[in-house]
Structure formats: C-alpha cells, structure tokens
Amino acid sequence: MGLISDSLTQESLAQQFNCSIITPLNYKLLLKLLKPDFLLVESAWQGPNNAWKFKIASYPDYPQRNNLALQKVVTYARDLGIPCVFWNKEDGVHFERFIESARLFDHIFTVDENCIPRYRSIVGPEVSVNTLMFPIQPLTHCFTGFNFKYNSANFVGSYGRHVHNQRRFWQDMMFNATQETGLGLTVIDRNSDRKSDNYRYPDLADIEVKNAIKHGQTAQIYKDYLVSLNVNTIEDSATMYSRRLVEILACGGIAVTNPSPAVDRYFKDYCHILHNADEATELFARLKFGPSSDDLARADAGAQYVLATHTWAHRLNEITQIIGLK
C-alpha cells in the first residue's frame, strides 16, 4: 500500500506489511513505479519528518496551510487506477479539521460511527463511508504471560488543562483515587516535550511523571505495572475507543477505564469500568494488594479476544473488502 500517516500508524503497519511511505516530494516516483494496491491516508498531523504538517488538517485562518499537495497525490493516484482511502482516526472531535481532505477520497473510514451521517451529507453517493476502529499490531503489543513488576498504576498519554474537560474529570478522579488508596501512579507524559503549562500533569504527592517514550515501548509498561489506566475522550460512540485501551488489553494488562458505549459493546468483559470515585477507591484499595484470579482470567481473555478480532490484519481485510480488492 501507499501510506500517508503519523508515526504510530506507520510503525504499526510497516512491521508487517509492504508500505510505501508517500511524501509531497516522492509521490509520482513511488506511485508510478510501485503502483500499490491502494493509497491509505490517515488524518495525520505531521507525517514522517513533518512532511505532511499543515497539509492534511484544515486551518481556515491560515490560508497558506492547505491540502493542495494532498490533492495532487490523490489525483495522481486516481489517474493510475489506485483506489484512494482516507481514515479519520480523530473523529468525532476533529471532524471539521479533516473533512476538506476526506472529501477528496473514493473511500472514507472513521473511528466514530456517529460521524457517518455527517459524511454522507457532504460526499456523493459514489463515495463509500464506513467505520474502521483502532487496531493493534501484535508484533508490538501482545500477551507474553503475567510478570508484574510494580503493584501500582500507570497512565500513558497526555493531560490538558485547557481542553477536554470531561476527559480531565475522569483523569483527576482516577489519579486522586490512586493517591487516596496508596496504589501509586506512574505517568508517561506524551507531551513532555511541550513547554506550555497547559499540558502539565497535576502536582500530586504520590505521582511520578516520566518523559515520553517510543510507541513500541508502551507494551512493556502495560506488562510491568499491575494496573493500566485508560480514558476515552469520546463517551457517546459505539465504535470509538482509545488506541491505548486496546493495546493495554492486547498485552494482558489489567485495564481500568471510564465508561462508553464502545467499551460496553466490545470490552466490558475484559476490563474494569469505573462510573464514580467510590468505585475507583474500592477497586484500587483491593488491587494494591495484588490481582485476584478473576482479574488475571479477565486480562488473559481480553488479550485473546483482541488478538482474534482487533489487529491491523483484520482492519486491512475490512478495507480491501470494501474497496473491492481480492
């Protein structure tokens, strides 16, 4: 496939599949020479070496930031008979940010099924619109048996003091519960390189904040720490869940998450779902003394389930079926 994506997706796909990494400079050479089965473009913010920074997302107040380069790539691929696929991994929060690029494509996939009617109202009937949920790459995130090194919790991700108020509510609730129960918390700060105080985690007594790590290294975090915290930013979708949640489960982690229709639909049998602070306190007070046999059985089953249904191989099969590739 020809691929335009951010690093997480690129790393996951390139480990297992033949990917030609497309940039504004090399697209004519690679598409014509290699003629991939299809072109997959995700809602990328940067792309490799910032090759697609400001070239896929829409910035109406900055006209010099536009998708003209992407238009050229899609037109060239289409002229070569290469199916063009767009995947918005940022729906529904950033639907507007990527719709001008999405509408260029023959096939649109979204992580949030709630956005399908919005796409259908904008694109023509000849354009297919379907869901494509977050998968895992089992060569990176996989279950290798239980060997917890720390009877404490981890959270891998970002924190925003200025955005996503409801997400921050769930984070604060879980973080405070780890403090009150003595479970303890280690945070891997995805935004450790950003200088703004808007991205700093709360200053709690028993929280250790570490710098960002490579995506592939997160698997070991989920295996080392007894409890892996997750927060789903989108809480009203039956298909949108965080990539982090499915990767935790793939590793056999004991996942603790806020509720959402997607969690209830796919993962309720494999993780602990919190609805309030009392539930968090009760759960963490128990887990700090170690997992029960039920905790381990649930995590084991979750890893098997994810491997059987939510890998990149499954998602690419969904794509190829819809676009008509054999």
From TrEMBL:
The lineage of its organism: Bacteria, Pseudomonadati, Pseudomonadota, Betaproteobacteria, Neisseriales. The keyword Transferase applies. InterPro entries: YkvP/CgeB_Glyco_trans-like. It comes from Iodobacter ciconiae. Keywords: Transferase. Residues 200-319 form the Spore protein YkvP/CgeB glycosyl transferase-like domain. This is Glycosyltransferase family 1 protein. Pfam families: Glyco_trans_1_2. One of its GO terms (molecular function) is transferase activity.
